[in-house]
Amino acid sequence: MPYIKRVHLAQQQFVEQDICAGYMSETDHYPYSKTDVWHYLIEGFVRMGRDFANKYFEVIKNCQ
Questions:
Q1: Count of domains forming the chain
Q2: What residues pair up with 32 in beta bridges, in sequence order?
Q3: Contact, 30 vs 48, CB < 8 A?
Q4: pTM of the complete model
Q5: What is the mean predicted confidence (pLDDT) over 45-59?
Q6: Measured distance CA(24)–CA(49) in Å, rounded
């Protein structure tokens, strides 16, 4: 993924300016398939779901 660092930086900058936004940095640690580097393994999708839920609750506390 040649531009992923640039994308992550733009996302982080956006979140810094909007209290109703959240950034999930845990995605770097989700396991990928060895044959398909664009998609997570099932374990990665489960972890992503948990992380989304946790970030959602964090954001709604800050955004009210």
A1: 1
A2: 40
A3: yes
A4: 0.74
A5: 94
A6: 11
